[in-house]
Amino acid sequence: MAEMTPMMKQYLEVKNNYKDCLVLFRLGDFYETFLDDAKLVSNELQIVLTSRNGVPMAGVPYHSINGYLKKLVDAGHKVAICEQTEDPALAKGLVKREVTRVVTPGTIVEDELLPEAENNYIIAIGKSGEFFIIVLADVSTGEVIISEAEDLISLKDFIVASQPSQVLLRESLKDLKKEIAGVTSSMVELIEDWHFALSSGINYVKEFYSIASIDHLELDDKQVEVLGALFKYLETINFSPLKHLSLPRILKKTDSMQLDASTVENLNLFRLERKGSLFEILDETTTGMGKRRLRQWLLSPLTDRHKIDERLDVVHALYSDRHLLDELREYFHSVYDIERITSRLSTDRITPRDLQSLRTSLTVLPYIKELISNETAFDRLRERLELFPSELELLRRSIVDEPSSSIGDGNVIRKGFDAQLDSLRDLLDNSVEKIRAIETSEKKSTGIPSLKVKFNKVFGYFLEVPKSQSGKVPESYTRKQTLVNSERYITPELKEFEDKILSANEKIQSLEKALFLCVCSQLMNSLQRLKDAAIVLSEIDALQSLSLVARKYNYCRPRFSVDGSARISNSRHPIVERFVPDFTPNDISMDSSENFFIVTGPNMSGKSTFIRQVALLSIMAQMGSFIPAKDAMLPIYDRVFTRIGARDELASGKSTFLVEMMETATILSKATEDSLVILDEVGRGTSTFDGISIAWAVSEFIYEAIGCHTIFATHFTELTELSSMYPGIKNKTARIVETEKGIIFLHKVINGVANSSHGIEVAKLAGVPETVLSRAKEILRVISKQSALDKAVRVLTAEDLREIRQSKKGKMNRNQISLF
Ligand code: ADP
């Protein structure tokens, strides 16, 4: 490398302080990267790697930085942005440069870099005794949540369910890094233990919330430590405390139904590959904040009957009044993502267009409030919905109808807002006339009729005279340039005029910026109220979405039973019915005397659809949605567990069967009598006899020690014998009829057991030779006789039962607190 330039020295100093970041170094109109960073960046962004004085470099234009930033951050890099912090024109020697911000996946606030429908969470994890303390924040919306997990499984479930973009893990927990990285594609960063000190934690919490004491937050020391560590991190990368974060919400285990990662996946709540998801069906929201709210509701259905009914009342009101729903939706088309706009306001990343969107949203607020004022179901929402007349007035007065996207090109502040700005603009507006006046008077005084006043970037304003006339030019003209046919001159008068115009332009830019900031700082006084309004609006948006969907697909309002029974008539699977034209509805009836169903039937008979349907319907009902059925009475479940299908986890080195058993073990230890358990083919991943035995024992354990509503779909017809031994266990089967042409699936779930030879029927349908089929039948007869489980297996003794129930109690520790 040649001798190091002063700029390169400056760069290396910065890089040295930000070793774990890619440093984007502002050089004029470019952000440049150097050395190893340059090689990496040119590779990630597919941009040219150049070299100067032997130093590799790669740069991107400053105005398109966002797109590049997104790619780098998505690829898992932390990016430090090093700006020029003084005007290069005024700098003596090297321009000063400083890192002004570090961009990480979990701390982005720019709208164009974030998916609208999803929160962008950063999670900090610490430990208190056996428990993990989790703090979850979305800097783009200001939400802060504190939760905890009783063990690693629950912690991983929490991470999968919240899908954070970034995880901060206390260094002393570094052994878990691999486990955590295994369940999330997000960046997992270790944070040194001293960041979790209580005293600094208290200070950070006070500073971020601008409060003198943290007592009223009612946090315990460990929670303060983790919250403080997260705030410290946010301050280090944003270089100022974020003031827009809401006070932490502490989640209690009883607040919501907890859905673990495999349930979210098994039930297809969100989009996986190309299959349809429940969220897509339920999402008719019109705003980004409404989408995020709906998503949160789907991930954490409520367990409080009163709160569920509050939501259902609103959905019902809109469902019954088409006109009201249509009008509300119409207004909501003018509501923007105020939640994110207010966050950008407080992080100084707000744009003039954001203020325009805020103004439009605030304009329709009174109409929305008025519209919902006659419906008692909306009472609570309406009370919480404030109006913003003075903020609106300020925005109307200050910002032009259609401002430019960024501040600086003179089209943001409205005429009449500031006298000085107006007079500067008048000067510019009159400049064309002024030029014509100069031109006319010069033509006259020189007697050159073809003289013209022109402008270019190099010379500014000048007088152009044809060469043939140059003799008539007076002495006061200074020649600037000679062209083939003309000469160009300047005069003192023209220069003075030009200075005025140029400085007016500059003044307008800086004045507009100052006025814009002044408007923003006035709005900052209403920040918390605006954030509260955003929350109410997001809830109304989510509720109107649920009403529209209920109407569109003919859903019914669920009711909730007091005795824990479930009675649903004509229920449908919300996703499958969208793809199957003649969906067959099914009835479900469970109570304390019949709480365990064993569903048998051949492949494709509709078993999986049926059992998932039951789980989906209770999740929908508890999130406050209507459900696809004719009539429904449901219990309130504390959790829904699913163990479905053989998922391939070869990548993590665990066999399918091991995963299956781990999930089963979780259910056995965490389900309570108020849970719903859905099992599909448990025991399938091992040999038949092994499988049947495990499935059998698992069923007995759930039935005797837990006693919750359970639906078990299985190929093992042997399990149907359980019904003759335990009164609450019932057999169901998906009905089929056999015709000469083969089997017809009716998809109707009825009492009874599937005929075990259907497998052979299917084989026949598929054209397997007759000799093979008859041999199979013969073997089936022998095996059936040999297994004869009903006679061979003893019923559990009183002693067994005591042991089973005891073992369950031993495991019944505090349930994990759930998300949202
Ligand atoms: P199984 O679990 O018994 O193998 P599935 O539940 O996967 O069967 O159902 C197989 C197919 O049958 C589904 O993909 C769907 O197309 C159809 N199906 C299932 N249930 C119904 C129903 N109630 N009405 C109409 N079609 C159904």
TrEMBL record:
<keyword id="KW-0067">ATP-binding</keyword>
<dbReference type="Pfam" id="PF00488">
    <property type="entry name" value="MutS_V"/>
</dbReference>
<dbReference type="InterPro" id="IPR000432">
    <property type="entry name" value="DNA_mismatch_repair_MutS_C"/>
</dbReference>
<dbReference type="Pfam" id="PF05188">
    <property type="entry name" value="MutS_II"/>
</dbReference>
<dbReference type="InterPro" id="IPR007695">
    <property type="entry name" value="DNA_mismatch_repair_MutS-lik_N"/>
</dbReference>
<keyword id="KW-0227">DNA damage</keyword>
<dbReference type="InterPro" id="IPR007696">
    <property type="entry name" value="DNA_mismatch_repair_MutS_core"/>
</dbReference>
<dbReference type="InterPro" id="IPR007861">
    <property type="entry name" value="DNA_mismatch_repair_MutS_clamp"/>
</dbReference>
<dbReference type="InterPro" id="IPR036678">
    <property type="entry name" value="MutS_con_dom_sf"/>
</dbReference>
<dbReference type="Pfam" id="PF01624">
    <property type="entry name" value="MutS_I"/>
</dbReference>
<dbReference type="GO" id="GO:0005524">
    <property type="term" value="F:ATP binding"/>
</dbReference>
<dbReference type="GO" id="GO:0140664">
    <property type="term" value="F:ATP-dependent DNA damage sensor activity"/>
</dbReference>
<feature type="domain" description="DNA mismatch repair proteins mutS family">
    <location>
        <begin position="675"/>
        <end position="691"/>
    </location>
</feature>
<comment type="similarity">
    <text>Belongs to the DNA mismatch repair MutS family.</text>
</comment>
<dbReference type="GO" id="GO:0030983">
    <property type="term" value="F:mismatched DNA binding"/>
</dbReference>
<dbReference type="Pfam" id="PF05192">
    <property type="entry name" value="MutS_III"/>
</dbReference>
<dbReference type="GO" id="GO:0003684">
    <property type="term" value="F:damaged DNA binding"/>
</dbReference>
<keyword id="KW-0238">DNA-binding</keyword>
<comment type="function">
    <text>This protein is involved in the repair of mismatches in DNA. It is possible that it carries out the mismatch recognition step. This protein has a weak ATPase activity.</text>
</comment>
<dbReference type="InterPro" id="IPR045076">
    <property type="entry name" value="MutS"/>
</dbReference>
<protein>
    <recommendedName>
        <fullName>DNA mismatch repair protein MutS</fullName>
    </recommendedName>
</protein>
<keyword id="KW-0234">DNA repair</keyword>
<dbReference type="GO" id="GO:0006298">
    <property type="term" value="P:mismatch repair"/>
</dbReference>
<keyword id="KW-0547">Nucleotide-binding</keyword>
<dbReference type="InterPro" id="IPR017261">
    <property type="entry name" value="DNA_mismatch_repair_MutS/MSH"/>
</dbReference>
<feature type="binding site">
    <location>
        <begin position="601"/>
        <end position="608"/>
    </location>
    <ligand>
        <name>ATP</name>
    </ligand>
</feature>
<dbReference type="Pfam" id="PF05190">
    <property type="entry name" value="MutS_IV"/>
</dbReference>
<dbReference type="InterPro" id="IPR005748">
    <property type="entry name" value="DNA_mismatch_repair_MutS"/>
</dbReference>
<dbReference type="InterPro" id="IPR036187">
    <property type="entry name" value="DNA_mismatch_repair_MutS_sf"/>
</dbReference>
<dbReference type="InterPro" id="IPR027417">
    <property type="entry name" value="P-loop_NTPase"/>
</dbReference>
<dbReference type="InterPro" id="IPR007860">
    <property type="entry name" value="DNA_mmatch_repair_MutS_con_dom"/>
</dbReference>
<dbReference type="InterPro" id="IPR016151">
    <property type="entry name" value="DNA_mismatch_repair_MutS_N"/>
</dbReference>
<dbReference type="GO" id="GO:0005829">
    <property type="term" value="C:cytosol"/>
</dbReference>
